[in-house]
Amino acid sequence: MATLDSLSLFTGLGLSEHKARETLKNTALSAQLREAAIQAQQTLGSTIDKGTGTLLYGLASRLRDTRRLSFLVSYIASKKIHTESQLSAALEYVRSHPLDPIDLVDFEQECGVGVMVTPEQIEEAVEATINRHRPQLLVERYHFNMGLLMGEARAVLKWADGKMIKHEVDMQVDPGMDRVAKARLQETDRRTAKDVMENGEAAGQTLSLMEQLRGEALKFHKPGENYKTPGYVTTPHTMDLLKQHMEITGGQVRTRFPPEPNGILHIGHAKAINFNFGYAKANNGICFLRFDDTNPEKEEAKFFTAIYDMVTWLGYTPYKVTYASDYFDQLYAWAVELIRRGQAYVCHQRGEELKGHNPLPSPWRDRPVEESLLLFEAMRKGKFSEGEATLRMKLVMEDGKMDPVAYRVKYTPHHRTGDSWCIYPTYDYTHCLCDSIEHVTHSLCTKEFQARRSSYFWLCNALDVYCPVQWEYGRLNLHYAVVSKRKILQLVAAGAVRDWDDPRLFTLTALRRRGFPPEAINNFCARVGVTVAQTTMEPHLLEACVRDILNDTAPRAMAVLESLQVLITNFPAAKSLDIQVPNFPADETKGFHQVPFAPIVFIERTDFKEEPEPGFKRLAWGQPVGLRHTGYVIELQHVVKGSSGCVESLEVTCRRADAGEKPKAFIHWVSQPLTCEIRLYERLFQHKNPEDPVEVPGGFLSDLNPASLQVVEAALVDRSVALAQPFDKFQFERLGYFSVDPDSHQGQVLDFTPFCNSDGVIENLGLLILGGPSAPLG
């Protein structure tokens, strides 16, 4: 009953039911918010409006000195504190004045209590600001950074309502704009850019990635206008910090792609790469590649190299490659400052004690600042064992987690700093501060990091450093796949796949090895769209994007997987003929390649049947077939069988194709070929969701497809591919697409991807390995 009452109380403050339930999971926060709400109701004698409720929630979640709760609630309930900037100033004041009694006159002056800002004052301040920037504004028009105008106006009128300032800026800069029409236009653009996903299929026309990410297609803030973002927390220092930020960046969009170097990137990371690098590129900005190397136990040099290779393979060049470890000295100095400000403390609770939604509060939370400073220095000097001490921040996160860890002890040498450090910062501590150091404007991350947004804003503000804006988007997943690092390692350990680049996986190195062009992966990301909701796509949509590219870029060749020798008894020449084969039959202007045509050719065994079933159109008794590109038709004369009764070879006669009736079919063939090994792949998993315990009760390892790999050791290919280099791609006629694999002997391995047969049915994927040049067969 108490829970239901609290839920009703919290939703009455304006919290969504989901947010209210999440708040209830945090005992300390919910108790403080309940006390604040009850006191406010008693003061008001009526229901609490949403604006007041928002301030009360901000107070309960950010106030550390609970003795001041009643004092500050009285100011909020009486409307003496009625804006976020006033609340931030009040919290800063009580933090910096811990001793009783509070000087009310000084407090009210510092918090803007009783300060009245009239519409006329706002109008005059905005007009003066616009006049200072009028020449630049007239030139740049709608490209001008309006945040600069708002920031300067707010600097003059510290306690003015931000919405009123924005409205006045809009009116004076663009008095004739129809706001309703503009809002409708923006909503239409947003819906178009989002490219709504239905049932795992891309619905509607797909905009290019650049079109989706450019300008106002996304409702992101402009550089310098961070404070316009819903949920962004401002302080009395915010506008000065934003002004300094703009002076450093010149209003340039800055993003970053921050992978952990403890595994290989997968198809989901391709969306993140395209989103971060693409948003910067579409808006004339820059993007950092920053390695989050704060966990030395799991990091390996090969992962750094592979990640960089994949970013450049997808066509992006980082503005700069940085590492979290570049900033270890600064991060440590800020941690010391955080302790000095009473916002962090050294704790001795063990890891298992911190798990779950409602762990016991730390008994060391209120230890003296001087004591935490000494203990943190001791951590730095290696006087604690691993797990014996951590540095924790004093805040409550959006998911109810209380006091996340900022530093922990690890005695593993770091790949860049060696043994210089035995304490390492966590993601929650490092991420936002590295963004701040690099003056990132848009910190783009997937939805699971939404629960860390509060700590992101809190930490930057607690240290009075520039605070970027975190924006979340939906993850990209594929059916019939697992992409987690831990589970791929299990697959490797179980022998189900060879390594991270096994072509049955959906890591980016595996896709490259399979022959997927980077343009196709980028096009797939564009087709998925910049969605907020998590998206799980069918693999055939990715394969369709690959076909679109390879159909125009992979030259044709001929290969035979399961060969049957054919002797042409009346071959029309004394020696082999040179046949010109178009590289792209649909566009012969792209050139030709030459293949030999000799008395002995090899065809697919499945292209011949002694006793064909109805509808069989290829070689049989009384049923001739054409040989592609030769201009000749062959007709069966004799079947040669071995002692076991199996067909070993055929003897045929040939005639010109224009010398008689047109055959029902033309088949591919090879003559004087190269031998090779082909690995044919099908899906690694049998079920669409191998990690779903309902669909696969035995776990994903029990769902392996036993036929996911088939090796053809004696396949034959025409000699036109003999000089192919690693990652060169071909379309083998009537079979599918191949890519030269770097593992091949003498550099000749082809990655085979037969996406669809002549009937358009999706088929298996495979890998072709060419050995060294062999003597011509036959």
Automatic annotation (TrEMBL):
Output a single Gene Ontology CC term carried by this record.
cytosol
Q: Name one GO biological process term.
A: brain development
Alphabetical list of InterPro entries matching this protein:
aa-tRNA-synth_I_CS (IPR001412), Gln-tRNA-synth (IPR004514), Gln-tRNA-synth_Ib_RNA-bd_2 (IPR007638), Gln-tRNA-synth_Ib_RNA-bd_N (IPR007639), Gln-tRNA-synth_Ib_RNA-bd_N_1 (IPR042558), Gln-tRNA-synth_Ib_RNA-bd_N_2 (IPR042559), Gln/Glu-tRNA_Ligase (IPR050132), Glu/Gln-tRNA-synth (IPR000924)
Q: Which SUPFAM superfamilies match?
A: Nucleotidylyl transferase, Ribosomal protein L25-like
Q: Which UniProt keywords apply?
A: Acetylation, Aminoacyl-tRNA synthetase, ATP-binding, Cytoplasm, Ligase, Nucleotide-binding, Phosphoprotein, Protein biosynthesis
Outline the subunit composition. Monomer. Part of a multisubunit complex that groups tRNA ligases for Arg (RARS1), Asp (DARS1), Gln (QARS1), Ile (IARS1), Leu (LARS1), Lys (KARS1), Met (MARS1) the bifunctional ligase for Glu and Pro (EPRS1) and the auxiliary subunits AIMP1/p43, AIMP2/p38 and EEF1E1/p18. Interacts with RARS1. Part of a complex composed of RARS1, QARS1 and AIMP1.
User: What is the stated purpose of this protein?
Assistant: Glutamine--tRNA ligase. Plays a critical role in brain development.
Enumerate the spans annotated as Glutamyl/glutaminyl-tRNA synthetase class Ib catalytic domain: 252-551
Annotated Glutaminyl-tRNA synthetase class Ib non-specific RNA-binding domain residues:
7-162, 166-243
What CDD domains does the entry give? GlnRS_core
Record protein name field:
Glutamine--tRNA ligase
